[in-house]
Amino acid sequence: MKQAMVDAPVGDDVFNDDPTVHRLEAMVAERLGKDAAVFVTSGTQSNLVGLLAHCGRGDEYIAGDMAHCYRWEAGGAAVLGSIQPQPIPMLEDGLPDPSKIASAVKPDDPHFARSRVFCVENTKDGKVLSVERMREATSVARDHGLRTHLDGARMWNAAVSLGIDGAELTQDFDTVSLCLSKGLGTPMGSVLSGPTDLIAEARKWRKMLGGGLRQVGMVAAAGIYAMEHNIERLADDHATAAAFASAFAEIDGVTITAHNTNMLFLSVRGDPNELMGGMEAAGVKMLWSDAGHGRAQSRVVTHLDVSGADVAPVAGALRALVS
Ligand SMILES: Cc1ncc(COP(=O)(O)O)c(C=O)c1O
Fold first, then answer.
1. What pLDDT is attached to residue 323?
2. Are residues 251 and 293 in the same domain?
3. Would you give the distance in Å from CA 301 to the centre of its chain?
4. Is residue 85 within 8 Å of 78, Cβ to Cβ?
5. What is the distance of C-alpha 121 from the center of its chain?
6. Across the beta sheet with 295-301, what order do the strands follow?
7. Do residues 67 and 82 share a domain?
8. Are residues 34 and 165 in the same domain?
9. 322 CA to middle of ligand 1, Å?
10. pTM passes above 0.90
11. Which residue's CA is the closest to the ligand 1 atom numbered 7?
12. Together in a domain, 59 and 199
């Protein structure tokens, strides 16, 4: 990947003149069956320029109450776009509750914000939503005149897990945000894809947000490399996460609270700070937080820098601490 970055032909992407960025954008649009795409700095920026393209001032987006684009993006759409978020409950599998969409959509009346777009996240905490399952919600949204946005930060984990291609997974969405970092392993970057007019609008917002970058083909080249080499191998990350889950489950006092694709969540008797310090002393950086009732919780995410060979030493360190 680093060699591909060094070798990349570059231009000035602020002038839409970087051939490597063009290649990456065309590649993502083609693989997701969309008309156009725009390379942005992060998943947060991708969701934000997507929402800004869909919604004007005083409009609203509907999303699950645990959605990244509602909860973990610093309220950017509201702060920077005057776009009102309308959260609805997220079901156990990560789908925003389809039965709550109709009542969340506002009537055409001067009292209300205009409901414009409905957002889904896949995977959500590693949980995979099938095309059919997502359609249970997107079809309701469409019936109410909403457009659809997929926060597909980890959409390839979902596609690989379902054994389908990206275009099939994302077919019911107008816009899709895909992260090239995280599981795909690039140092930075996301791509928003969708209809030509919305992507042109998103490109303008990207510039306004300070996301217009110059010879950024060097980074886009990492994205091309990731698209070519790091998608199918996500199945290895899922297998490694399963191996971690089995190894942790054998430790007395450890509870696996969830395990899907490349993520698992665990809770352990003990103090979060002691666990953090103890694991770090054993060479494992691991974030722990308070789960109440004398327990600590953590999230383990596998990616291309973690392999099956890491399972035994990490589980061994945790076993030694917990016992
Ligand atoms: C589902 C989801 N969407 C968006 C983002 C934001 O991505 P970034 O960290 O690149 O801004 C994340 C980050 O973890 C995420 O998990």
1. 85
2. yes
3. 13
4. yes
5. 7
6. 254-260, 263-269, 295-301, 289-292
7. yes
8. yes
9. 31
10. yes
11. 43
12. yes
Span 231-264, pLDDT tens digits: 999 999 999 999 999 999 999 999 999 999 999 9
Rounded mean pLDDT, 281-295: 95
Residue-number span of the structural domain to which 61 is assigned: 2-229
Query: Are residues 183 and 303 in contact, defined by beta-carbon separation less than 8 angstroms?
Result: yes
Per DSSP, the residues of 144-212 read TT-EEEEEETTHHHHHHHHT--HHHHTTT-SEEEEESSGGG--SS-EEEEE-HHHHHHHHHHHHHTT--
Single out the residue in 195, 229, 263 at which a domain terminates.
229
Decide: 215 in ligand 1 pocket, CB within 6 A: no
Ligand 1 mean position to 182 CA, how many Å? 8
- For residue 179, which atom of ligand 1 is closest to its CA? 10
Task: Identify the CATH number of the domain in which residue 295 sits.
Answer: 3.90.1150.10
**Three-state SS for 323?**
coil
The answer, yes or no, to whether the previous bond of 123 is cis (omega within 30 of 0) is yes
Q: Is the CB of 50 under 6 A from ligand 1?
A: no
52 in Cβ contact with 58 (< 8 Å) = no
Q: Is the dihedral of CA 80, 83, 89, 92 positive or negative?
A: negative
Cα–Cα nearest to 69, from 145, 190, 137, 152: 152
State whether 257 and 138 are in the same domain. no
Both tokens of 157, joined, read: 């984990």
Q: Are residues 115 and 8 in the same domain?
A: yes
Q: State whether 170 and 156 are in the same domain.
A: yes
Instruction: Give the residues across from 269 on adjacent strands.
Output: 295
Q: 204: domain CATH number?
A: 3.40.640.10
Instruction: Report the number of distinct structural domains present in the chain.
Output: 2
In terms of domains, do 26 and 157 share one? yes
Final residue belonging to a domain, choices 180, 201, 229 = 229
What is the distance in A from the centroid of ligand 1 to the CA of 69? 8
Distance 44 CA to ligand 1 centre (A): 6
Transcribe 39-76 into DSSP letters.
EES-HHHHHHHHHHHH--TTEEEEEETT-HHHHSSTTH
pLDDT, tens digit (0-9, with 9 covering 90-100), for 143-159: 999 999 999 999 999 99
